Amino acid sequence: MKLIVFDLDGTLLNTLQDLTDSVNFAMDELGLNRYTAEQVRLMVGNGVAKLMERAVTEADIRLKDKAISLQRKYYAEHNGDNTFPYAGIEDMLRSLKRLGYVIAVHTNKDQNAAQTLCSAFFDGLIDYVCGTTDDGITKPNPEKILRLAESLSAEISNVVYCGDSDVDIATAHNLGAECISVTWGFRDGKFLQDCGAKHLVSAPEEVVKTALGL
Length: 214
What we know:
Blueprint: E1 2-6, E2 13-14, H1 16-30, H2 37-41, H3 48-56, H4 64-78, E3 84-85, H5 89-98, E4 101-110, H6 111-122, E5 128-132, H7 143-151, E6 159-163, H8 166-175, E7 178-182, H9 189-194, E8 199-201, H10 204-213
Parallel strand pairs: 1-4, 1-6, 4-5, 6-7, 7-8
Antiparallel strand pairs: 2-3
């Protein structure tokens, strides 16, 4: 059993504009400063709660819970408005399926939003979606992938992790799996190398070659 696990935002899907719009909806409703897409790009990766904590800043931290609620409401209704797969992603997933890989998504995005987006853009190509639920378990905690691997009787040595951030590198490390770090997402190659990335790829087709070589 070969299992490959992908991050979602910045790895399979470019979700940046919709995330930015959802943050700014909350900011507008609360009368706080708006953010550019470039600013939001550096704020995402640790889930909605941390994203909105960063958005409201310490100065308005009392508004964090309201900001989370507003962002979630808006994003649930608009998460596909400007979101799209990165070029070559669908071909990559099809190649991995042909090679016998089980494909999972592991994201700090809310489970419902993650499932909706995977179904909309990758119907039939993603076997399992592990997002944030009421249990509060988020990356870099690998618990959900450990449970999935156990349910599939997959050895961790046969699990490959793929993502675009330091959080994904840490998650793979905690899982005991090799990590493929992509440079087309929300973090650049130098940042990823500084965070300990060992396998950098700059195009989706390189993910397949790298996974086969691990």
